Amino acid sequence: MKNITIAVDAMGGDHGLKVVIPACVRAARNNPDLKLLLVGEQNQVNTHLKKFGITNNSQFSVVHASEIVEMDELPSHAMRNKKDSSMRVAINLVKEGRAQACVSAGNTGALMATARFVLKTLPGIDRPAIIAELPTMHGKTRVIDLGANVDSCAEHLFQFAVMGSALIQAVDKKAMPKIALLNIGVEEIKGNDQVKRTAHMLAECNLMNYVGYVEGDQFYSGDVDLVVCDGFVGNVALKASEGLAKLMLAVLKESFTKNWLSKLAGLVALPALGHLKSVWIRRGIMVPACLA
């Protein structure tokens, strides 16, 4: 990483500064060439930076913004009435060329709408989409869209594939990433008209490596580089995965604390759990409290 400047919505998210500032400090320490423009109420941002001993550091600059977009606020209201919000100001910094990217943990709808209004989209792309990286048994798979668009036509799904493929080519240096469509089955006859039309469009495009349909249980197989779906389906699938992970961890914790024998078994299993923790860290998975 060389000379990258990122604008950060310091006030956004469920926990705001309490989470954003520690994350920014960690990112800066791991990347000495990274510069962060922290956007938010100046006094509050500086107060949190001082907790980490940061008072005069070339990696950090504070840009004042007097307003905050609430997590339950309507995107249209935020765009009309909060032009000095930390989110809006951070996005404006990208438009002005002062930052190469913007990061926000805030209101997703407001972020998508504001970014689209201020920065516009690339030619041939109608809507932005949310993409995320999922750990798998064999590396990682990215999924797009995860909630930015709850209803997408075939043309939009095709555009999501274009954006996702371009990102993987740039970040992972893969010339022709494997792209799949999320469907209720892998057979060609399965799916609604929207999915079938998208499949036809992708199959006809020789600039992308479309490999067919995948089902939800293949998210974590690592067989493809990109899974494409509409935001409604993608968000439900992601939240279901999160819920399953929480259930498994709760069962694991209960199993090892039920009685003295299970506690003894837990002690015996410590080396295996330690290995599991190290694997999760390498693959970018959040380590639960019971393994930390």
In short, what is this structure?
Helix content is 44%, strand content 16%. With 292 residues, it is of the alpha/beta class. The strands form 2 sheets. Strands 5-6-9-7-8 form a 5-stranded mixed beta sheet, covered by helices on one side. A 4-stranded parallel beta sheet has the order 3-2-1-4.
List the helices and strands and how they pair.
Blueprint: E1 4-9, H1 17-30, E2 34-40, H2 42-50, E3 60-64, H3 75-81, H4 86-95, E4 101-103, H5 108-119, E5 131-136, E6 139-144, H6 154-171, E7 178-182, H7 193-204, E8 209-214, E9 226-228, H8 231-255, H9 260-268, H10 270-282
Parallel strand pairs: 1-2, 1-4, 2-3, 6-9, 7-8, 7-9
Antiparallel strand pairs: 5-6
Helix pairs in contact: 1-2, 3-5, 4-5, 6-7
How would you portray this structure in words?
There is one protein chain. By secondary structure, the chain is an alpha/beta fold. The chain folds into three domains: 4-119, 3-Layer(aba) Sandwich (Isopropylmalate Dehydrogenase), CATH 3.40.718.10; 131-234, no CATH class; 256-292, no CATH class. Helices cover 44% and strands 16% of the residues. The chain is built from ten helices and nine strands. The chain has helices spanning 17-30, 42-50, 75-81, 86-95, 108-119, 154-171, 193-204, 231-255, 260-268, 270-282, and strands at residues 4-9, 34-40, 60-64, 101-103, 131-136, 139-144, 178-182, 209-214, 226-228. The strands form two sheets. The chain has a five-stranded mixed sheet, with helices on one face. Strands 3-2-1-4 form a four-stranded parallel sheet. α7 (193-204) links the parallel β7 (178-182) and β8. α3 (75-81) crosses α5 and α4 packs parallel to α5 (108-119). The protein is globular, with a radius of gyration of 21 Å. The two termini are 29 Å apart. The mean pLDDT is 89.
